[in-house]
Design a protein that fits this description.
Elements (H helix, E strand, L loop, with lengths): L2 E3 L6 E3 L1 E4 L10 H13 L4 E3 L8 H10 L8 E6 L14 H15 L4 E6 L8 H14 L2 E7 L3 H13 L7 E3 L13 H8 L2 E4 L40 H16 L4 H9 L5 E6 L4 H8 L8 H11 L12
Parallel strand pairs: 3-4, 3-10, 4-5, 5-6, 6-7, 7-8, 8-9, 9-10
Antiparallel strand pairs: 1-2
Helix pairs in contact: 1-2, 1-9, 3-4, 5-6, 7-10
Length: 327
């Protein structure tokens, strides 16, 4: 396993991070979740991402319970705050009240004295940005968190926030967690540039496009039984099961490139993300220890310029809306 700095900051995280969205505390049994986390740790993964809202706190409990068997200094825990955790008017968002209260609640569920990375799960336009940043700065000063970051903030929001932290001499934003993969490169237009300029580490979620970039979904074929796309509770980013056949055709044309590199398609997709020096880590999800092992194998893989060019040609290819499956 290779390690990278989290942006311009001193902390080093594994190139592959194990996430717990839609899995631990929810669709994956606790004993299986434990084996996945233990497998990750054994493979050198030291970075574990969760959130208070995942299974309403249950994911944090499982992650914390498993990690407590290891020395605290040997792993990095990231969690988040923003989404509703109750029915009250202050049980959501990025007010000072909600941030401070949820940090304490997350510490209790995780069973930790401090959180390595605490993230604003989304941007909150209803709260003054200065109030949000000052709340995170307060937690840093109290030692309850070491660093803080954001998730799915726009380039403008990031730029505004970094300006405020400098003007007010607040702790800087350490990380950004956007969605990024071969089939969704939106952050390359602006967000990546701001993160590069400000030294903000990127830890992207859904690097395998919710499973599309594993190759298990075939053009013109029924969804595999038990797959994420076949589960209406888990396929919110997969167009409710109606998968884009043009995208599936591109994925199939990436397979021989992966084979030539001696990689699985998943490993190729992860290594492609990690070609960006701005990326600190790719966040994977896993419901089986074998998936953790396969994805961890992408760390340290360097793709040649020729391979990157071949990938670019596939990703940029024009495919008609009226595709013929099998072509």
């Amino acid at each position: 396993m290779e390690y990278r700095h989290l942006g311009k900051h001193g902390i080093r995280v594994s190139e592959v991070c194990l996430g717990s969205w839609l899995t631990y505390g929810g669709s994956t049994a606790e004993d299986t979740a434990q084996r996945c986390i233990e497998q990750a740790y054994d493979l050198g993964i030291n970075f574990f991402d969760t959130a208070n809202v995942y299974a309403r706190g249950e994911a944090e409990k499982i992650v914390g319970k498993v990690l407590r068997q290891y020395p605290r200094e040997s792993y990095v825990v990231a969690t988040k705050v923003f989404f509703p955790m109750g029915e009250g008017p202050n049980d959501r968002g990025l007010s000072r009240k909600h941030i401070l209260e949820q940090c304490n609640a997350s510490l209790k569920r995780l069973g930790l004295d401090y959180i390595d990375l605490y993230q604003a799960h989304r941007y909150d336009p209803t709260v003054p940005l200065a109030e949000t940043l000052m709340a995170f700065d307060q937690l840093v000063k109290q030692g309850k968190i070491l660093y803080y970051g954001v998730s799915e903030w726009s380039a403008g929001q990031l730029a505004h926030a970094t300006d405020l932290t400098r003007l007010a001499n607040l702790a800087p934003i350490a990380s950004n967690q956007p969605r990024y993969h071969m089939l969704d490169r939106t952050i390359e237009r602006e967000v990546l540039l701001v993160c590069r300029r400000e030294g903000i580490g990127i830890m992207n979620y859904s690097p395998l496009a919710q499973g599309l970039l594993t190759g298990k979904y075939k053009p013109g074929q029924a969804l595999p039984e038990g797959s994420r796309a076949s589960d209406p509770k888990q396929n919110m980013f997969l167009n409710q099961g109606e998968l884009d056949q043009r995208q599936l055709l591109k994925v199939q044309r990436l397979l021989p490139i992966a084979e030539q590199e001696g990689l699985s398609l998943s490993q190729l997709a992860l290594a492609w993300c990690l070609r960006n020096p701005e990326l600190s880590s790719v966040i994977i999800g896993a419901s089986k220890p074998e998936q953790v092992q396969e994805n961890a194998g992408a760390s340290g893989k360097q793709l040649s310029p020729t391979t990157l060019q071949r990938i670019e040609e596939v990703l940029n290819m024009e495919i008609s809306d009226r595709v013929t499956v099998g072509v």
